[in-house]
Each structure stands twice: as structure tokens, then as C-alpha cells.
Amino acid sequence: MSLTDTLNDTLNDTLNAIELADKNFMGEAQKRSDNLTKPSGSLGRLEELANIVCGIKRTLKPKTENKIIFTLAADHGVAEEGVSAFPQEVTKEMISNFVNGRAGVNVLARHVNAKVVVADLGVKGEILSSGVVIKKIAHGSKNFTKGSAMTREQAIKSIEYGIELVDEEMNNGAIDIAGTGDMGIANTTPSSAVVAAITGADAGKITGRGTGINNEIFNNKIRVIKKGLNLNKPNPDDAIDVLSKVGGFEIGGIAGVILGCAKNKIPVVIDGFISGAGALIAYKLNPLTKDYIIASHQSVEPGHKILLDYIGLKPLLNLNLRLGEGTGSALGINLVEASCKILNEMATFEEADVSKKIN
Amino acid sequence: MSLTDTLNDTLNDTLNAIELADKNFMGEAQKRSDNLTKPSGSLGRLEELANIVCGIKRTLKPKTENKIIFTLAADHGVAEEGVSAFPQEVTKEMISNFVNGRAGVNVLARHVNAKVVVADLGVKGEILSSGVVIKKIAHGSKNFTKGSAMTREQAIKSIEYGIELVDEEMNNGAIDIAGTGDMGIANTTPSSAVVAAITGADAGKITGRGTGINNEIFNNKIRVIKKGLNLNKPNPDDAIDVLSKVGGFEIGGIAGVILGCAKNKIPVVIDGFISGAGALIAYKLNPLTKDYIIASHQSVEPGHKILLDYIGLKPLLNLNLRLGEGTGSALGINLVEASCKILNEMATFEEADVSKKIN
Question: Which of A103, A120, A241, A245 could connect to A232 by a Cys-Cys bridge, CB 3.0–4.6 Å?
């Protein structure tokens, strides 16, 4: 039985629809960049970013007008093991903060002129606000130290909900560039477990201090992750198995958003560690997805570098961020937009009548 | 005779007016930041940036509305030694490109909603455009392999012109945050010489490939810098002596802009290597200036890290930029603005009714 035999249509169709970015457009974009009034290559990674976007969108005039950050929320049964510095109700409380536009991601999204789409993939309790997209799978995942975090069907559903979020926004208008973000108390714990399961790296090397835990909780957190991995034995070659056994609903949803963006040929700027765990799931399901992912920043969480290296992504920023929500995505989207404006707005040597390089 | 005895009033008054940033406001800003709806410290360097701006401006509600990038241009006699990949007329040609809004700095400044003030400190030839502030000291500096690049009076004048640029813009309205940038074919050569003279580092370790020179020109460039240093013997403890013997007019102007910002309590985001050489001059003239300088990015030029370490500055971005003009400053200003918006716009735990950390 192949892996994809067990997947339903939405996910299967998405995985099959993802194509490589177009290398010809990337090359043509660099040629245009080389003819702009600056030394060739002098805008470094901004030039690379513009090339990537041109390759994704198959154009030399990439638009970045419609920017959406998908902030996905869920709760985690493993929170009852005392792995977080914050109480579980903060997940739900923060959703109100998002809707009111007063959380970190709202401020940074406004700053870069991006819209925030907040979705409930599995928050404990009912979310009544009309400002939240409800795609709830359950009232939190289960405690993975006592069994699977979710069923295989729920894992697939969480990914499909992420794909749907992208498709729905595309139907509402357009997405020129997307970002991912997360909210879920304790979610660095399942993210660490996912990264350990897939990369094979030791949980002790992956695990960080999340929202800011002390040594005692930190050591407990590592024990909890190891216990979950030993009990559930996720199959590293089956990303759905990993997600269902030790993951979380928003992690699956983020994987889905990334796959949905790849299918729709939209560059997707991922945030930090939790978004990275989602990206790892998406990448394992279809490695071509990598062409569509831009890593916004290097998180303080030690496992983040491990997963980015595994996929082969190099983060744009290193500002010691560890908030999540999509805050890093907002800053990354801004750099991608800057890179596209360079390509679209700068004069060529001919247009500006500027002399070229001598040798 | 003390150093300052030889300085005239504008420079002396400015140096004497510079105060340390206010540590109380920095501490109060961090306290406010710790009470915003996020784990304490989770926005990393964004939190630090907001603290710095609050310390500079003596406020907990820092404004970043009026953003100005000062792009200073000049030519360099040492260009005749064949140290650049581009012909000297590009300096003047690029000024038209700036005025037309089609150069890299214009695109990125528009992206971050900053104004670009272009000033001619010593371009070869007449600049006729009304869009350029003319503060011309000479039609290019002299070739420092044959004597001093400029007189001591000219060096002081270049710094004072930079101070004037800031004062004039303050009189025109306000500057909430400033950036620096440069244009001047061959100007990585005098910048390398300035950094070598002041830091004592070897010219071979400082010198880079500027706009993109081949091995032969690169080796010649190092020889030229060493020759200039050996001939002129700049006094590392006298920044004006260094600037006059091996510097350039825009480098002095940038030092002046930085001093002018420090005097006016304006955070100043410096660009790459040439702006860094200017910052080094400003820092040597008054080390308190350091409190007002924010390093936007780590340039590809190897001497940049050496000078940033010397001053004690840690760059925000590392995107392999080496264009100059203020392009990196624009991106850095955007991050500083983001950091201030976080402080101004995010809800506190109380305001949002979000539960606090347990332990």
C-alpha cells in the first residue's frame, strides 16, 4: 500500500498538482536584475528572493499587493504534562486579541500591509467571534504520552483544512504572497516531537524553552517528548503518521496552507519553529513544495535550525524571535515585497543613461 | 593643543551637545514590553530596538512617522588609480537616477515610506537638478597616493555640512528617524583606508571587492590603500586627520549626519561599509554617538565587520548587500519602525484579558 492510497481526494489532488518552480523565469529575472542600475549581485539575497518569486509565479513582473498571513490555532492534550509556562486558556484568549487587532502579528501585519486570517483548527472551547474561520477538528489534540495525539483521519483533515483556507481566500480574491503563523499553548512540544521523528535528531538537541520555561520544566519537556516518541513510534517516512501520533491540528493546518500555496503557485513565507514543523510535514508529503517556501527567520528554538537544514532553507532574518503567530512571516513578507519592487521599479542602465561596468 | 581647539563652532557645539541615551526610558520601555501580550523577550531584537529608540527620544511612545535617508555623494581622486569596476562619471549619472526616483535607494525608501535627501558633497562636475542639496566642497577629493585627500579645513567642512543637512531638515519639519547612504565611485577605497587607519587592522583584511572587481584590480586596490596610508601617516587618535588624509567628502558628510542626529536625539540607521566609515569618524570624535547609531546590515565588504566590532554595533540584517546608497538603511528603518509599533499598538495582558505566565 503506497502512502497516498490512504489519502482522500483534496490532499491527493493537491500533492499531485504541485510543480517545480520555473527555472527559466528565475534565470530571466536574474538577467533583468543584472541590468538594473547597481553592481550585479549587489542586492544579495533580495535578488535571490525576486528570482524565487518570479520562478514561482512564472512572471518577470511579480505582484505582491495581496498579502495574507494565516494564523492557525489549536490546543494540545500534552499541555497537561506541564510543558508550558502559560496556562492552556491563553490559546482561546489570544484569539480574541487577534480579532481585536492587538496582538503581535496584527501589529506587524498592519505594518507590512498584510491581512491576518485567523482559523480555529482545534482550540479547546467554542470560538464565537465572526472574525475567526472555524475549521475545528476537536477541542484540542490528545496527550501523546498516553497514545496518539489524533487519528490518522484527523491528521489528514487538518492538512486539508489548511489547503481549503488557501483555496477559499483565492476564491475571495487573490493571494499574491502568503505567510503562516500559529497559536497554541504547549505547541513547541509536539513540534519538537515532529522534528525529532522526521529528522532523527535527538529530542534533547531539538527542544527549547518555548514561551520561557525554567530548567525543571525544560527537563520535563524533553522527557515528555521522548516518552511520546517511544510510546507511539511514528514512522519517519510517513508524515501523516508522524502528524497524527505526536503532532497538532495547527501544525497539520500549516502544512496544508503550505501545500495549498504550492498548488496555487503562491510564495509562502513561513514563521518560526511551529510553522517549520508544518513545513517539514508538507515537504515530506511532496518535496517539490520546497520551491514555494521562504523561511522568514531563524528562531531561538534549537530545533528550528535542524529542520530548516533538513529541508534546505536559509532564513532571511535572525532577530532572536520566538513569538510565533506569524510575526516573523510579516517581516519576511516585507523583504520579499521589497525584492519584487526592486525588479519592478528600478531603472536599467539604458533607461537611466548610466555608464556600465568597465571590466 | 587639544583636538577640539582646531574645530570651529558648528562641529564643536555639536560634539559638546551630544548626551548619552536615557537608560531610565530604556528600562521603562522594556517593562512595558514585558507586559504586552507575548512571552517576555519573545520579540528579541525588536524589543531591544524599541528600547534604544525610547532611550534616545526620552519617551515610551516613540514616533517614526517622518523618516529621512540622507544619501551623500562625492567623487574620489584615488579613482584614477583604477580601483573601481565602474567609471567615475557614474557618480554624477546616478544622481540623476536618484532624482528620478529610479535607483535602489528610491525603491526601498518608497517601500518603507521614507524620504530620500540627496546631497552633493563633492561630485566632479556641476549638478544642476533642484532635487539635490548642493554642499559641494570640491570637484572630488585628491588622489591620496600623492598626498592628502583634502585639507583639514575641508574635512571639518564636510562634517559640518552633514550636521547642517540634519539641522535644515529639522527646521523644515521633523525627523523621527534617519538613515545614511552614499554614492561615490571608488569610495570603498577611502573607506577601507579610514577603517585601517583608525582600527589598526591590516588593509589586506579590510579591503573587499566593492562593486565587483577582478583579482588584478583587487590586489592593486590593496596596494593603493597601503601606499596612501604609508605616505600620509594619518593619526588614528585624530579622526579629522584620518578623514582629511585618506577619506572622502561623503564619508565626512555621513559622520556629520550621524553627529547631527545624535545632537538632535534622532536614531540614525547606518547603511553598509561607507556609512560605517563615516560612523567610525563620528564615534572617534565623540564616543557617546554610539548610543544613537543602529547598524542596519552586515555588508559583504570584510572591513565592515571590523569597524562594527570596533564601535560595538551588531547589524540587524545579513542579506549579502553591497550596494550602498542607503538601501540597507531603508530596510533597517523599517525594522526599527516595526519595533516601535509593537510598543505603541500591542495590547497588555490586562487590556486584552489574557492570562499571565504561571511560573
Answer: A245
Compare CB distances from B38 to A43, A46, A104 and report the shortest one's residue.
A104
Backbone angles phi, psi at A156, to 5 degrees: -60, -45
The three-point CA angle A352-B158-B189 to 5° equals 60
Task: Count CB-CB contacts under 10 A for residue B31.
Answer: 11
- Nearest CB among B300, B351, B359 relative to A85 is that of B359
- C-beta pairs of A31-34 under 8 Å, 24+ apart in sequence: A32/A60, A32/A343, A32/A348, A33/A342, A33/A343
Q: Which residues contact A356 (CB under 8 A, 6 or more apart)?
A: A349, B86
Euclidean distance between CA atoms A4 and A21, whole angstroms: 23
Its sign, for the CA torsion B269, B302, B43, B359, is negative
CA angle B41, B339, B166 (to 5 degrees): 140
Q: Which of B95, B273, B359 best probes binding to A when mutated, by most A CB atoms within 10 angstroms?
A: B359
User: Do the domains at A3-61+344-352 and A67-336 have one common CATH topology?
Assistant: no
Q: Letter for the amino acid at A237? A: D
**Nearest CB to A107; choose among B87, B322, B342:** B342
Residue B201 has pLDDT above 80, yes or no: yes
H-assigned helices in A264-348? 273-285, 302-311, 327-345
Question: Would you give the DSSP letter of residue A356?
Answer: P
Tell me how close the Cα of A207 comes to any Cα of chain B, in angstroms.
16
| Mean pLDDT, residues A215-226 | 97
- Tell me if A37 and B104 make a contact (CB, 8 A cut-off): yes
Mutation site, B32, B38, B350, interface A, largest A CB count within 10 A: B38
- Into which CATH architecture does domain A67-336 fall? 3-Layer(aba) Sandwich (3.40)
Q: What is the pLDDT of residues B20-34, one digit of tens each?
A: 999 999 999 999 999
Fold (CATH) for A3-61+344-352: 1.10.1610
Spatial contact of B118 and B133, defined as CB atoms under 8 Å apart: yes
pLDDT tens digits along B59-90: 999 999 999 999 999 999 999 999 999 999 99
**CA distance linking residue A162 with residue A157, whole number of Å:** 9
Question: In this complex, do A93 and B353 lie within 8 Å of one another by their Cβ atoms?
Answer: yes
CA of A297: which chain B residue's CA is closest? B317
Contact B238, B7 (CB under 8 A): no
Q: Which of B93, B325, B337, B351 is catalytic?
A: B325
B325 catalytically annotated: yes
The C-alpha cell that represents B264 in the structure block: 538632535
For chain A, the domains span 3-61+344-352, 67-336
Is the CB of residue B142 less than 8 Å from the CB of residue B190? Answer: no
Nearest CA in chain A to B326: A43
Which single residue is written with the C-alpha cell 535572525?
Answer: A318
Q: Which amino acid is at A132?
A: V
Name every chain B residue with its beta carbon within 8 A of the beta carbon of A39: 85-86, 210-212, 322-323
Q: What distance in Å separates the CA atoms of residue B143 and residue B147, rounded to the nearest whole number?
A: 7
Is A43 close to B341, i.e. CB distance below 8 A?
A: no
